[in-house]
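Weekly modeling sync, notes
Attendees: S.R. (lead), two postdocs, one rotation student

Agenda item 3: backlog of single-chain predictions. S.R. asked that every request posted to the team notebook include the full sequence so nobody has to chase files. The rotation student volunteered to paste the first one in as an example of the format we agreed on. Action items at the bottom.

Example entry:
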Amino acid sequence: MSQTINALEEALGIRLLNRTTRSVSPTEAGQRLLDRLAPALSDIQLAIAEVDELRDSPSGTLRINAPAPAVDHFLCPLVFHFMDRFREVKIEIISDAAVIDIVAQGFDAGVRFGRQLAQDMIAVPLGPSLRYAIVASPDYVARRGTPDTPHDLVGHDCIKRRFPGGALVTWRFAFGEEELEVTPSGRLTVSSAQNELQAALAGKGIAHVFDDYAKSHIREGRLVELLPDWSATLPHWFLYYPNRRHPSAAMRAFLDHMKSYAWEARR
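Predicted structure, as returned to the notebook:
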């Protein structure tokens, strides 16, 4: 502190403290400077205290970028449950299938498959692994029959889906150790899994969607599952975030909540 005062006196060209071997007291100039700076110093102390409180108390806004299927079936149920417990935290979810730089675009976290993650990110599994379902309406099955293997799809109307970048989604299958990818053929192409499911419900063809999208429709008889023995699974979605030394209290609370969330009980 004494070095700081000495440097300030040197810069101002005036003595700020009276110094003796027994005491130190402000000069007139020093007292005037102290009186003027006191409110600002108080504001600085208050600001530091507020920031310190943020470190320990979950609050503020979390921005999360995720593809629509992850939002629909995993992220939204988790977020709704989290917000019931942490009422000072605001959450903004942006649905986006493109692979982006979450730091450059101002997101606290993102959701993608593991193979799409940058090496410098921390990733935590979000929910259980995923299963594909091949489905069609009872009306379509009555008219066109059922395929026995994925190779039989060549003779069917498959509802195709295109990624945002323009590539068609290939259909993945697995039977024991055998894995197979099929490029579907059909008259209708859509841009979302929800649209693909709607088209299947309308009898327009066969859809290849995540099981979570289709299971209620299968259970209630609106859709029929095809090729169940060939159903392929995917690894988990991952919630990922920058490798920072000091994540916010809100982010720490969200991660802890996600790890303890009872996924299977809510599916």
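Discussion: group reviewed the output briefly. The two ends are 61 Å apart (CA to CA).
Action items: rotation student to repeat for the remaining queue; S.R. to check formatting next week.
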